[in-house]
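All the exercises in this workshop are built on plain-text protein records. A learned vocabulary of local backbone shapes supplies the integers on the structure line. Once this layout is familiar, the rest of the handout is easier to follow. An example says more than a description, so a record of this kind follows:
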Amino acid sequence: MIPVNLFTIVNSILHSSIPREGRSGESETGVGDEEQAVKAEQTGLRVIRLHDARHTHASIMLKQEIHPKIVQERLGHANIAITLDTYSHVSPGLQAAAAKSFDEAFGNNYNKRSDEALEKFG
């Protein structure tokens, strides 16, 4: 996970009012200068934009089942709807997990207590 202080720095860069072409060595496509591209190719790594790292950070947190409100706050989204709309594809099993959790909470235990009550008072 990205440390809070590093994430704060990355977040401030992403939300700064400096035009993209004015940021240190970053072009309109988000790929750095030629030297960075050559080094990446030599090491077998890809050049990624800071914004891509931001999406990866959010996706990992959601896959780790960190509450979306926490993710929203870390990303600086104005409201949780933006976060959920943007990253809903990350957790497609949320509906199934919610149904299973509800079933476990009210399934057998609820039915047993209902049967006991019927026997006792019925």
User: Anything to note?
Assistant: The radius of gyration is 23 Å. Residues 50-63 form the longest helix (14 residues).
